[in-house]
Amino acid sequence: MNCCTRHPDSRAAWRCQRCKSLLCSRCAAPDGARVRCVGCGSFAEPLMIRKPIPPFWSMLPTFVRWIFRRRGLIEWLATGAVLGLAAWLVRFAGVGTVAAVLYLLLFVASFMLIVRRAAEGREEMPDEVDLHEYDELGLVLYRFLLATAILWIPTLLGLLYGEAEAGLLGNPVLLLAIGASVLYAPAAVVAAIAGRSLGDVLNPVQVLSTVTRFGRDYGVALLVLLVMGGLIAAVRFGPPGAALAGLPVPWVAEFVIETISLLPAWLVALSLGRLIFQNGEELGLFSSKSLLVPELPGARPTGVLERPEPELPGEAEDDELREAVRAGDAQAAAAAWAGRAPEDLSLSSELALRLAALLSGAGEHLQAAGICRQVAERDPQDPLAPRALYTAARLLVEMAGQPESGQALYRSLAEGYPDDPLADKARQQLGESGDRSTPGPSPDGAK
Ligand SMILES: [Zn+2]
Ligand SMILES: [Zn+2]
Q: Could you say which ligand is closest to the alpha carbon of residue 301?
C-alpha cells in the first residue's frame, strides 16, 4: 500500500512522472482524461499493482449473470440457433457433410473464444466487439485443430474402418479414441491457447507436460468436463432429447438441444480458460504488463494545480530551450540544446519528443535519437515511452546509419511493451531488416 508523499494518512493512487511524488486525490488535479501533480504540474500516472487472482470459482456467478443479460443472451441464443440449424441440416444427403463441418467449426470457435477471454482473466465477456480478438481466434482455431489432430484422426479412422452397425460398443478403436479424448482434449485446448511454439502444440509429450504443471487444478478441470459432458449427454440422449425429437416442427428440437448443451460446454471452456489465467504467470504465458491493474481503481483527482502550466525546474537555458521547442523553432532549439547530453534532459516527455523532431529535421539524427531514448529509459511506465523507443530506433536505423543499435531498440520495444500497437510495427521492422541482412548474391555472381 502506498501513501501520499504529502499526506501520509491518505492512500496514493498516482505517481508524478517528473517529481516522482506519490499523490492522493487532493494532490492530483484532473486535466481532461489525465491527471497532473499539483506540486509541479507534470502528468501523473496511476500506480499499478499485480492483478489480484481471485479463487477459481469466483468467476462463475459473474459469467452466469453475463449469459443472462442482453448481450450474453444474444450470443448464446444466436450460437444455439446456428448450431441447431447445422445439426438439423446434417441429415440431408446433399449438404450434410458441409453442415457437419460448419457445426464443428462454429462450436470450436465459440468454445475457444470463451477459453481465451477467461485465460485473460476476464469474467465478464466484453460488450464491444474487439476485432483484434477475432483476428487471433483464427490462429487459436488453427492451433486447436493441430493440437487435437492426435485425437480426431484416429476417431475418423475408427469411423471409417469400424462396423457402423455394431454401434459404439462394437468399435474398440472409436471407443479408445473417445476415452483418450476426454483425458487429452483439455490439455490440447490449453496448449492451443497457451503454447508458445508449434512444438508445444503438436508434441503430445509437451502438451501433457504443460498440464502436469497445473497439478490438482487440471483434475478439477477434468471433473468439470466429465460432469458437464454427462449433463450434455443426458439432455441429448435422455428424456428431454427424446421428447424434443418427437416435435413435428423442423429445426426447433435441434435449436433447443444445442442451446441447452451450449451452457455446460461454455462452463467447461470457462474453467479451462481460468486454469490458464491462474497458472499463467508461473508458466510465463503472460507479459507482466497485462497482469497490472490500477492500485486504486475508483480514485478521482480532486486537487487544484498550484501552478497552472507544467513548469520544469529551470535554469534560464531550459526556459530558452522550452520556448524554442514550443515555438517550433528548430534553429533556436538546436542552439539551446547544443553541447548537452541526453541525460541533461529536463523537458516533459511530450516536449522532449518535439525537440527530437526539431533536431532530426535539422539533420541532428543521432542527437534526436539519444533524446528519444532518454525519454523511454528515464521512465519506462511513461505512456510515451513506446513511441519514444520506436522513434529512436527508426532514426538510428534509417537516418543515423546505426542499424544494430536501432534494432536493439526495436527488440526492447517488442519485448518490453508487447501489447502496444507499435510493438507490432517494431517486429515488422525486425523481420524486414532481418531479411535485408541475409547475404544476397555476391557481386561476382551477379549478372
Ligand atoms: Zn510532480
Ligand atoms: Zn496528498
A: 2
